[in-house]
Structures are given as structure tokens and as C-alpha cells.
Amino acid sequence: RDAELNEINQLKEKTKAPGEFQNASLFSDLPLSNRTKMGLKKAGYKKMTEIQQQSLPLSLCSRDILGAAKTGSGKTLAFIIPVVEKLYKECWTPLDGLGALLISPTRELAIQIFEVLKKVGEFHGFSAGLVIGGKSLEEEKKRIFRMNILVATPGRLLQHLDQTVGFDVSHVQILVLDEADRCLDMGFSKTLNAILGHLPTERQTLLFSATQTKSVKDLARLSLKKPEYVSVHEKS
Ligand code: ADP
Ligand code: MG
Asked: Which family does it belong to (predicted)?
């Protein structure tokens, strides 16, 4: 316990501002908790992809991110790692309720994110759940209260925000909007705006998208504070 508090203090110190780790190419070069490092190692992740290299040094320092990189570039780890690290540094426990919200346009993508979260977060003690519909709303209602991290689709999440009595998002520390362009293409603009209206303004936000359309920029303006722009154009 003491060793862990010591680790947390060191991590907080190192992630006040991006330091020499801005040039890191391996996950092991980043200021990450041992628990996260163990999860990454077990899953076989060693070298960062381009979008991870560019965004993680900033997102780990609590900066808002507007990230663009095509499908398959490794965006999932680029947001899961800062989510887990944020809650770890805040000494978040299952009793603290919802601390992180990850929004994804489709059920399938949400499930994929959840699987990566389970792997990388295996050695952390956070509770995590899916809010994607398909199962009974009542079932979800019962579980939703116990979760520290939720991976959700926009429609179902808003349904809970409007209908599930006592579902409290006022302490959310970090919000992830994944595949923002697709969310907007699917007509979720109003839903996302309504969700944003429920969230505390003091929070970190990471917005990832494969393309930077006008509507993505509008959503970015609504949801991000002084974002860092990270964009990767791969050579073909
Ligand atoms: P995106 O969300 O940008 O489409 P994903 O996060 O789904 O990309 O990652 C695509 C694939 O690359 C996945 O199979 C994932 O396991 C793998 N991957 C991601 N980051 C790394 C990494 N640093 N090293 C090796 N494989 C990785
Ligand atoms: Mg993805």
C-alpha cells in the first residue's frame, strides 16, 4: 500500500507536463503504473504505434486530445491507457462510482473496446461494464451503479441518463469519444450533445476520429478544452 502511494506520487509528478518521454517509442518508456505495464506486457504490446506515440505523452498529462488516425492504427490503446492511469492516479476505488465514460458508435465496437480494457486493466481493481442495449434495460440498470468505467453506445447511454434514477455521472474524470465521425454519420449529434450536458465540465476529454469533418470539428469545439491536435497520415 505504501509502495503504491509512493508510485502514485511519482507518476503524478512525472505527468504534470510532458517530459523526456515525449520521444518514447516503447510503452515501457512511458510513466505508467506497474499494473498497466503488467497488463500491456501480458497482452504482448511493446512498441507503440504512431498515434500512440504522439498522443499518450500528452493524454497521460491530462491534456484534451483531438486525434485523427485511420482504422487499424491503434487508437483503442491510445485512450484506454490514459483512462486507467487517470483513475489509478486519483486512487479511484469501486466505491467512488463512475469515473470514466467511453462512447463508441456501435455495439460491436464497444465490445471490442471492452475486451481490450479487460486485458490491459486486468491488474487494476476497477469495475467495468458495457451499456449497449440488446439486453434488458432493467438488467443494465441494476449493474450500472457499480461501475467505475463504462463503455457505451450513445442512444442507450442517454436513455439511462434520462431514465435510470440515481445514475450519477457528475464525478466523471475522463470522457472518450471514439469514432466520432461515425457517431455523427449515424445521426448521434443531438444525443452526444445531450450526453455532454449531463457531464461535469471539469474533466479530461479524448476525441478520436478517422476523419476530420466539419461536424467533428463542431463536436470538438463543444467537448474539448484547449485540445492537442494529433493526426497521423500513414505513408502508403
Ligand atoms: P483503431 O481503433 O485505430 O482502428 P485498434 O485500436 O483497433 O485500431 O488496433 C488495431 C490492431 O492493432 C488491433 O489488433 C490491436 O491489437 C493492434 N495494436 C494496437 N496497438 C498495438 C501496438 N502498440 N503493438 C502491437 N499491436 C497493436
Ligand atoms: Mg477503433
From this structure: Belongs to the DEAD box helicase family.
The string of pLDDT tens digits covering residues 167-205 is: 999 999 999 999 999 999 999 999 999 999 999 999 999
For 160, half-sphere exposure in the C-beta direction (CA atoms, 13 angstrom radius) is 24
Choose which residue among 77, 117, 211 to substitute to test ligand 1 binding: the one with the highest number of ligand atoms within 8 A of its C-beta: 77
Q: What is the pTM of this model?
A: 0.97
For residue 189, the CA-to-ligand 1 centroid distance in Å is 27
**Residue with CA closest to ligand 1 atom 15:** 74
Distance CA 113, CA 125 (A): 18
Beta strand extents in 105-160 (DSSP E only): 128-131, 149-152
Domains and CATH numbers, the chain: 2-231 (3.40.50.300)
Half-sphere exposure of 62 (CA within 13 A, CB side): 15
